[in-house]
Structures are given as C-alpha cells and as structure tokens.
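[INFO] parsing input record for Iron-sulfur protein NUBPL
[DEBUG] input buffer:
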Amino acid sequence: MESQEVTKDLKMVPIENYGVKCMSIGFLVEKDAPIVWRGPMVRSALEKMTRGVEWGNLDILVVDMPPGTGDAQLTISQRLQLSGALIVSTPQDVALIDARRGVNMFSKVEVPILGIIENMSCFICPHCSEPSFIFGREGAQKTAVEMGLQYLGEIPLEPDIGKGSDDGLPIVISAPDSVVSKAYGDVAQRIINKLGELAKEQGYHPEISL
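[DEBUG] output buffer:
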C-alpha cells in the first residue's frame, strides 16, 4: 500500500485520471486485507471519504454503494445533501429484490430516485453479434415500470469493459465509437437530464455540500 497524499489541512488528495477524481477505502488498506467493520467504523470511513477529501470543484460526485439498505446507505442519505439515487441492477430476480429495497429506503429518507439502470443486460457474441440474455431479459426495465420510475438504459456484458478496468483504460477512451461507449454516453445524458428536471421542480440547482 502506498502512502496517501494529503494537503496542508490534512485532507486526502484523490487520484485523478481522464478528468475523473476517485477515492476509495481500497486505496487505504493493504491489498488483500479484509475490511470487517461495524456500523460506527463504516460511518467514520464515509465521513473521511467525503468531507476528508480535497475534491475541489466537481460537476457531479458519484458515491458507489454496495447493494443493501444498511448503515452505509443510511449514513450517506443523512450526512450528504443528495441530488438523487441511481439504482443499478442486473436483470435477474434475486438482484432486483435488493434494487426494490434500495428504492424504498431512499424514498423513505426523501432522496429522489433518478431511475434504474440495467447492468450486464446481455452478452453480444463477438462472432455473430447475436445477443444472449444470460441473466434474464428486461428485468430492470419491467421493475422500473412497476415502480413508476424512469428506466435510464442498459449496459451490456462486454469483456472489453473488464479488460479496460484492469488496464486502467476506460472503454469510452479506448473505443469511443463502440456500442458500449454509446450506451454509457446515452445513460449519462439521461441522468443529467433527470437532474435538470429535478432542479426545475425543486427550484434550485443540484448541489452537493462537502
């Protein structure tokens, strides 16, 4: 583990690449060290990951949360002024159970639901270009309709996404004209549009206070 760079006021400096800043607990622990934390430690870590980081001026701060409705999710909703929650799920029923719980939890704490994204929606054969729906078909889309939420799009299961992640080269950079890159771009634009709609409804511009 490398030592984390800090500012004069002892705030951690996030790693930045391709114009995106990133901070993770994984940067602060040994490579194979397990993270076995109780609630108070989780809350303390989230505090350090937000207010303890020199984020600078951001367009959007994305907090990638694990599935579930535990301490981490509740702490984030209570401690940050959230513009909204994005629900990401694979199409199969067992994953959508957690997705529904997440929708209900954020709704109860009055965090707007931006919509649902279906990840690993299908595998497109590199030889014949035919899609295979490995985890089921349109599960997240059907859930969005049932819950009255916006369906923001789907991201296919693509080996180059994983390879690019391991290599530190996002597919939107290595293959900007690919089907997957277009899918990411379309989803991102719909999220931005949704944030704009919420801002008009609520009479203010989305802002995250750190």
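[INFO] Helices lie at 39-50, 71-79, 93-108, 139-147, 159-167, 171-174, 179-202.
[INFO] shutting down worker
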